[in-house]
UniProtKB/TrEMBL annotation:
Signal peptide: none annotated. InterPro entries: Amidohydro_3, DHOase, DHOase/Allantoinase_Hydrolase, DHOase_cat, Metal-dep_hydrolase_composite, Metal_Hydrolase. Residues 344-422 form the Amidohydrolase domain. This is Dihydroorotase. The keyword Phosphoprotein does not apply. It comes from Rubellimicrobium mesophilum DSM 19309. Residues 51-219 form the Dihydroorotase catalytic domain. One of its GO terms (cellular component) is cytoplasm.
Amino acid sequence: MTRTLIRDVRLIDPEGGTDQPGALLIEDGLIADLLPPDPEGDFDEVIDGNGKHLAPGIVDWGVKVSEPGERHKESFRSAGLAAAAGGVTTIVTRPDTLPAIDTPETLEFVARRAAADSPVHVLPMAALTKGREGREMTEIAFLRDAGAVAFTDGDRVTEDTRVLARALTYARGLGALVVTHVQDPGLSRGAVMTSGKFASLRGLPAVSPMAERIGLERDLALLEMTRARLHADQVTTAASLPSLLRAKEQGLDVTAGISVHHLTLNDFDVGDYRTFFKLVPPLRQEEDREAAVEALASGLIDTLGSMHTPQDEESKRLPFEGAAPGAVGLETLLPASLRLVHAGRLSLPQLFRALSLNPSRCLGLPTGRLRKGAPADLVLFDLHAPFVLDRWRMLSKSKNTPFDGARLQGRVRGTWVAGRRVGGA
């Protein structure tokens, strides 16, 4: 049994809410002990942290890996390497592939490819309806037995309320988690910006923030009716937060997430029509971003992820309205999120509560914690190391990041999965 000591680090414990000096011992892929910064003992390997921060590895919920169907955009190997470079130890993948992951056979194919090619854990979600078309629910029980950790149609809203109600009812009987994209499809269809003066000045089709609130209110009403488990994948507007708070106070089993892009960028970033800033939902106004930061800090919004969506150059080199939406984020999730720490808006334990602990809790995983017996899925990072992001140096196959050329602060120095080092400088 190999005993690896990571000494002289600051241990970030999101469960206890602490940030303190110490050392961590790894044995047999697990955290064996938390120790003083420079302990004595017999160790097979000693890694000097040099005062850097050590935290639970990131669990990135909502990652698109383009296998099957669009492997040229992202493969399990390239996504896994990008994740390891970014401190992500578990990626929870979306089913919006070609074809959609809506059968046990497709899910098993994905699981085999992930196990063979990715250096980090890969947990697949499966489609909620067949073909993600919103007409007939999938075989949720069989897909769950095949390894699906949750069920979602991604950014396609199930417009037929009866179909969604049946799916929630069936999922409740199995204890399965349903993930929905909270937008009113009629209002949001064709929109590429959030409505307001800036969208009008740019001449782009826009959608009111109320489209999100309407979508969320419908899903919460169905949740109240069915008493299932629900995760709203992107709650990004101030108008939606009172509805979410009310549902939680009523005791409904609901959680919510947000992407790092919606937490650190706003609609003004679309000013030059650069298509790397075209996202689903669109970037919001600064008031919405500020409200979302406060909601994440308070715990009202539970999870923070990259919503990693690779697109090739051809689909992005189009006029803004016609370009494909989405941005990659596996490698930029941590340094971009650290902007909020450097600005004094979040503490490191609060940040890793959203990046690691809460996603693990929602999915019933043992990860996201610094405690004896927990998996040794870890990230060591230099909080203060500055750099300018060059998208061509990224490990993702697709390079569509809105942070290209941005000044960021915080670099990953090491990533461990089950005690094995898989990435970091």
